[in-house]
């Protein structure tokens, strides 16, 4: 595990903090300010618990059962029961990095001092993260409103030493055994604490932050593959001139055009569009790459703004205010996050679609301007990359299905008390699948474009230095170049790993300088 430490409560939690803890195993510490805030808020909750007046979440039931006043001797049981009853998830296990993200984000909110949780509960949350103990969370159980209830409840259950969890060695065991093995004492929940541990947008927000990190890499990678395809098709880079993009000043469009132009610098392949098979303009999938990629980039920027706002939020119901009030609210509603999760699935699908169209153009001898059919060695005897494009098309088709928004749906719950929900968790789950698919789609275009560039080089046309660097790095990663047909799946898998690990971007940046 990475020994980098993220301190909670000293300053605003960043997206980089979330990725560091969730994906790279960074340690978590509570700041002294966080401990003070936790203790101060707990004094308020304890005072309200001792008062005769009922307070939601402190001395009442929950949801549609909020009208019942709970006597002091039953309140510990009440908090345990909400965790046990709400840990009702079903289906496959959610990925470890997602569970760590939602645990960390819940800790971030708890540490704000607006939830009324005791400092020792927050410390136990940090202890689980630092020990590499990951509660078993299931795919289904959140409507994205009143928080990601079932997923967070499974995490709270592990804090109590109940349910199942995965240890740092990857083995799933009873959570109580794992806590004991790491010297962690299970928490005994008191007033409000069970509710506070499961009432937030942490799962959907964690998946949004992780998706943004992945999509940033994939959009830069797609700029590179679009440039390689333009080059392989003997297209013109004149459409990338900065003055053309300045007169339609969408920021992302200008960034993508600049990325492509820098990849193509020094190419001996561009500018031949009026040679043997004259054409005035390149096809839309080539010529409009900056516009499509750039619109997606602008969408990522907006989604990042929403994520930053949510990272600065304390999502709970009720919340403890500095003046001593404990107030009910609707901040747990996941609509702001759900909308951008769906928006990202739409732009990811369209990016995948334009990548596939360029790949198909590279493989079609009637549109590839002199390249062999399917980039095959001996067309007819060899099928070349014919079926690689089939795989890519299947992935694009699924991307379009995943682009259907989840956030327009709502099914009432809790006896109609919770009568409009966000479905943000569902939006996040399908976006994760979409991001995985997009990496594979970009990888297929990369594999086809590098083969086409090498075939052009065999004809005496010299690719750009950055293109050559991309080809060489991909070949070193195990994806072979032109030649007779061979078992293709391993090459495509190598290209997929190469793209999703950011190695394509890393390969060209020594030539181009840092790409956005």
Could you write a compact summary of the structure shown?
The protein has 516 residues and is mainly alpha-helical.
Features:
516 residues; mainly alpha; 55% helix; 5% strand
Question: What can you tell me about this protein's structure?
Answer:
This protein has 516 residues and is mainly α. The chain folds into two domains: 5-200, Orthogonal Bundle (Fumarase C, Chain B, domain 1), CATH 1.10.275.10; 207-512, Up-down Bundle (Fumarase C, Chain A, domain 2). Helix content is 55%, strand content 5%. The chain has 19 helices and nine strands. The protein has a three-stranded antiparallel beta sheet. Strands 1-2 form a two-stranded parallel ribbon. It has a two-stranded antiparallel sheet with strand order 3-5. Strand 1 (5-8), helix 1 and strand 2 (27-30) form a beta-alpha-beta unit. Helix 9 runs parallel beside helix 16. The chain is elongated, with a radius of gyration of 26 Å. The mean pLDDT is 95.
List the SSEs and their pairings.
Layout lengths: L4 E4 L6 H10 L2 E4 L1 H19 L24 H12 L3 E4 L2 H15 L8 H13 L2 E2 L2 E3 L8 H11 L4 E3 L5 E3 H7 L11 H5 L4 H31 L9 H5 L4 H14 L19 H4 L1 H23 L7 E2 L5 E2 L7 H29 L22 H17 L21 H35 L6 H12 L12 H12 L2 H10 L4
Parallel strand pairs: 1-2
Antiparallel strand pairs: 3-5, 4-6, 6-7, 8-9
């Amino acid at each position: 595990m990475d020994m980098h430490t993220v301190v909670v409560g000293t300053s605003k939690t960043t997206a980089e903090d979330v990725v560091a803890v969730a994906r790279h195993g960074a340690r978590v510490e509570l700041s002294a300010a966080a401990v003070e805030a936790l203790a101060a808020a707990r004094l308020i909750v304890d005072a309200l618990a001792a008062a005769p007046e009922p307070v939601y979440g402190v001395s009442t039931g929950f949801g549609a059962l909020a009208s019942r006043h709970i006597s002091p001797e039953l309140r510990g049981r009440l908090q345990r029961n909400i965790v046990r009853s709400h840990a009702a998830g079903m289906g496959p296990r959610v990925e470890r990095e997602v569970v760590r993200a939602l645990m960390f984000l819940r800790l971030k909110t708890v540490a704000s001092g607006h939830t009324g949780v005791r400092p020792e509960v927050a410390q136990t949350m940090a202890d689980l993260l630092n020990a590499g103990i990951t509660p078993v969370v299931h795919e289904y159980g959140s409507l994205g409103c009143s928080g990601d209830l079932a997923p967070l409840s499974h995490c709270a259950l592990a804090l109590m030493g109940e349910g199942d969890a995965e240890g740092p060695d990857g083995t799933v065991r009873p959570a109580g055994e794992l806590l004991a093995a790491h010297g962690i004492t299970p928490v005994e929940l008191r007033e409000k604490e069970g509710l506070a541990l499961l009432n937030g947008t942490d799962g959907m927000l964690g998946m949004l932050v992780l998706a943004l990190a992945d999509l940033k890499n994939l959009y830069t990678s797609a700029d590179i593959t679009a440039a390689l395809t333009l080059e392989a098709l003997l297209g013109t880079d004149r459409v990338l001139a900065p003055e053309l993009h300045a007169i339609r000043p969408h920021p992302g469009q200008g960034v993508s055009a600049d990325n492509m132009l820098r990849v193509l610098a020094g190419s001996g392949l561009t500018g031949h569009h009026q040679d043997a098979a004259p054409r005035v303009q390149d096809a839309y999938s080539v010529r409009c790459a900056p516009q499509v990629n750039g619109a997606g980039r602008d969408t990522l920027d907006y989604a990042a703004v929403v994520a930053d706002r949510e990272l600065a939020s304390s999502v709970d119901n009720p919340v403890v205010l500095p003046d001593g009030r404990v107030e009910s609210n609707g901040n747990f509603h996941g609509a702001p996050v759900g909308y951008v999760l769906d928006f990202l699935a739409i732009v990811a699908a369209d990016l995948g679609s334009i990548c596939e169209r360029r790949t198909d153009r590279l493989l079609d001898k009637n549109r590839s301007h002199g390249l062999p059919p399917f980039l095959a060695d001996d067309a007819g005897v060899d099928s070349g990359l014919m079926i690689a494009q089939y795989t890519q098309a299947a992935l694009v088709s699924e991307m379009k299905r995943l682009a259907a928004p989840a956030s327009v749906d709502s099914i009432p719950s809790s006896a109609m008390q919770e009568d409009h929900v966000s479905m943000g968790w569902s939006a996040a789950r399908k976006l994760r699948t979409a991001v995985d698919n997009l990496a594979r789609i970009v990888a297929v275009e990369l594999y086809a474009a590098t083969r086409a560039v090498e075939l052009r080089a065999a004809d005496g046309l010299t690719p750009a230095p950055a293109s050559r660097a991309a080809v060489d790095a991909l070949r070193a990663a195990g994806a072979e170049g032109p030649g007779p047909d061979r078992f293709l799946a391993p090459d495509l898998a190598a290209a997929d790993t190469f793209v999703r690990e950011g190695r394509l971007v890393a390969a060209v940046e020594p030539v181009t300088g840092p790409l956005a």
